[in-house]
Write a structure and sequence with these properties.
Blueprint: E1 2-8, E2 16-22, E3 29-39, H1 41-48, H2 55-63, E4 74-75, E5 80-87, E6 99-102, H3 112-115, E7 141-145, E8 148-151, E9 153-154, E10 164-168, E11 172-175, H4 181-187, H5 190-201, E12 209-213, H6 219-228, E13 233-237, H7 241-246, E14 254-256, H8 259-269, E15 275-280, H9 287-296, E16 297-305, H10 320-325, E17 329-332, H11 340-353, E18 362-366, H12 371-380, E19 385-389
Parallel strand pairs: 4-9, 12-13, 12-15, 13-14, 15-16, 16-17, 18-19
Antiparallel strand pairs: 1-2, 1-4, 2-7, 3-5, 3-10, 3-19, 5-6, 6-11, 7-8
């Protein structure tokens, strides 16, 4: 079938809105008519090249026997919601008419990580940047280019910047049909990742002091997560004045313009003890931020690294004696250490009850044709979250 979609042909090239070809769903797959797609920094990382290995890095990967994905052309988008149009053979959990939120990680349910409750680490995640479907490993997303028909890599195996998505049943989470699809699109990635980072992954406890560095679409929800976990002080750190002004609406008790300024603020708030948790959620994590983040921590504190760094930034400064003698923890976190099939409905239930805010996260809504405007607004920090309405 034909679908209007936004694709990226290479680093630094504007998004192109064009018609693509999607093969119909096969066994274990579902066709979804998209309602909303979120604008997330993970897609921007491919435009900037931050998430694309250099030629030298790719050569090292090949030498180590690591498969190098065919990054482009790429069908963008990994956050969103829609309505099931059709299902392939063997699909048991969904039927036409069901409302779904997209999960940017498929979960097989049977690998070591899934059966121990860590579906965000599912082994199928190794295939999210493959041009082949995770189901039968065939290529069934296509676009016509200067050299004829080309196969598409769909971002995170979904590609939500498209009127229609064909994806594995494992990538879709059924939601109640009375829930706003616009709100549901947000728990697909940003809300779940951020909320979990500020609560579950950080281990936030009642009375804690939590610092969130970078309060965009992920960080603002880390603020909400810390609040829900009972944090006493929540310091929202961002150079963007607009985001600092909005942060108290989501639970921030204090704000700071940068991590350095937050050190003195936190010292004052905690009588020198320092923060219990630090959550790093800027659009791009600079290496020198890690050292400041560890300075913000108290003894025994936890620093959560959720934001992505440039692939070329492989070294970070750390004061190792301080980590040892102060028993500090620096940990990488994916999906906020939440299991999307359980977390998304739970967060939407909290939204219904008024205990977390979703509608207020959306700063601006765009049409698919305006994808480059949406990305520029993301780059400039004008939005908490921008969404595409189909």
């Amino acid at each position: 079938m034909k679908s209007k979609a936004a694709i990226l042909r290479g680093v630094g090239i504007d998004w192109e809105v064009t018609e693509i070809d999607l093969d119909p769903p096969r066994a274990g797959e579902v066709l979804v008519k998209m309602a909303y797609a979120g604008i997330c920094h993970s897609d921007e990382h491919f435009y900037t090249g931050d998430s694309v290995p250099s030629a030298d890095m790719e050569e090292m990967m090949r030498a180590a026997g690591v498969p190098v994905p065919e990054w482009f052309p790429m069908l963008g988008g990994h956050e969103g919601s829609g309505i099931v149009e059709a299902v392939g053979p063997g699909v048991a959990s969904l039927k036409p008419g069901d409302h779904v939120a997209i999960s940017f990680f498929p979960a097989c349910g049977s690998c070591r990580f899934c059966v121990t409750g860590h579906t965000y680490l599912c082994d199928v995640g190794a295939e999210i940047y493959s041009k082949e479907m995770t189901t039968d490993h065939t290529r069934r997303r296509h676009v016509t280019g200067p050299n004829g028909s080309e196969d598409l890599m769909a971002m995170m195996q979904v590609g939500t910047f498209s009127e229609y998505v064909v994806a594995s049943e494992r990538s879709l989470v059924k939601i109640n049909d009375w829930i706003s699809l616009e709100a549901a699109s947000l728990v697909s990635c940003g809300v779940t990742t951020g909320f979990g980072s500020g609560s579950v992954a950080a281990g936030t406890q009642v009375g804690d002091t939590v610092v969130v560095v970078g309060v965009g679409g992920i960080g603002m929800n880390a603020v909400q997560g810390a609040k829900a976990a009972g944090a006493k002080n929540i310091v929202a750190v961002d150079p963007n004045e607009f985001k600092r002004e909005v942060a108290p609406n989501f639970g921030a008790t204090h704000t700071a313009v940068d991590a350095g300024a937050a050190v003195e603020l936190v010292k004052e708030l905690t009588w020198g003890v320092m923060a219990d948790r630090v959550v790093l959620t800027p659009g791009v994590v600079p290496p020198d931020l890690i050292m400041v983040a560890m300075m913000l921590l108290r003894k025994g504190g936890v620093c959560v690294l959720t934001g992505m760094a440039k692939l070329t930034d492989m070294m970070v400064p750390l004061v190792l004696p301080d980590m040892v003698s102060s028993c500090k923890t620096l940990k990488g976190v994916l999906y906020g250490e939440m299991n999307p099939r359980e977390a998304m409905p739970r967060l939407l239930s909290m939204y219904e009850a008024g205990t977390i805010k979703l509608d207020e996260l959306i700063t601006r809504t765009y049409k698919l044709d305006d994808i480059n405007d949406a990305m520029r607004d993301l780059r400039a920090g004008r939005n908490i979250r921008g969404v595409i309405a189909f």
